[in-house]
């Protein structure tokens, strides 16, 4: 995804408080300590499935909030990651930043979450590595 983008349409009108619609990228299959691929387990920045790996939370959202997080990991040794930033230092919460104006059901000055909307995320690279990202919603 480096240097590229991801675009999708999403309808969060039925995703209320206490629910999260999620879209994220991870490595699959995971690799165990003996470097054997395990097609039935995945890895992420919180070591779910017993393995660490970089993760990008493209969308964790409901009709009241939209959140993205890029999680990075220490350099792998023989393809095995020893640690990742679980909370993510590169994060964006739509409600904390004026990215799209209001992000609420019925909004007239931003994203009306009772209707389908379009999301585009650009993944910027610097020196062949992930640098940051921008998000546009319409």
Layout of strands and helices, then pairs:
Layout: E1 5-10, E2 21-25, E3 30-31, E4 37-38, E5 55-62, E6 65-71, E7 90-93, E8 103-104, E9 111-112, E10 117-126, E11 129-137
Parallel strand pairs: 8-9
Antiparallel strand pairs: 1-10, 2-5, 3-4, 5-6, 6-7, 10-11
Short note summarizing the structure:
The chain is built from no helices and eleven strands. The chain has 138 residues and is mostly beta strands. It is elongated, with a radius of gyration of 17 Å.
Give keywords:
single chain; mainly beta; three-stranded antiparallel β-sheet; 41% strand
Q: How is this structure best described in words?
A:
- The chain has 138 residues and is mainly β.
- Strand 3 and strand 4 form a beta hairpin.
- The chain contains no helices and eleven strands.
- It has one domain.
- It is elongated and about 55 Å long.
- Strands 2-5-6-7 form a four-stranded antiparallel β-sheet, with no helix packed on it. The chain has a three-stranded antiparallel β-sheet with strand order 1-10-11, with no helix packed on it.
Distance between the termini: 21 Å
Unreliable segments (pLDDT under 50, ≥5 consecutive)?
none
Shape: elongated
How many beta-strand runs? 11
Number of domains: 1
Strand content: 35-45%
C-alpha Rg, in Å?
17 Å
Largest sheet: 4 strands, antiparallel
Order of helices and strands: EEEEEEEEEEE
Q: How do the strands of the widest beta sheet line up side by side?
A: 2-5-6-7
Count, helices: 0
Percent of residues in helical segments?
under 10%
Which structural category do the helix and sheet elements fall into? mainly beta
The oligomeric status of these chains comes to single chain
Mean of pLDDT: 86
């Amino acid at each position: 995804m480096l240097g590229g983008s991801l675009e999708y349409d999403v309808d969060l009108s039925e995703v209320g408080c206490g629910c999260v619609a999620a879209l994220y990228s991870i490595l699959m299959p995971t690799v165990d300590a003996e470097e054997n691929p395990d097609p039935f387990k995945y890895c992420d920045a919180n070591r779910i499935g017993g393995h660490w790996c970089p993760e990008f939370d493209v969308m964790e959202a409901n009709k009241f909030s939209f959140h993205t997080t890029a999680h990075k990991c220490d350099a792998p040794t023989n393809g095995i990651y020893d640690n990742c930033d679980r909370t993510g230092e590169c994060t964006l919460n739509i409600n904390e930043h004026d990215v799209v104006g209001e992000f609420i059901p019925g909004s007239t000055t931003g994203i009306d979450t009772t209707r389908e909307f379009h999301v585009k995320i650009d993944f910027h690279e610097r020196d062949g590595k992930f640098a940051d990202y921008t998000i546009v919603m319409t």
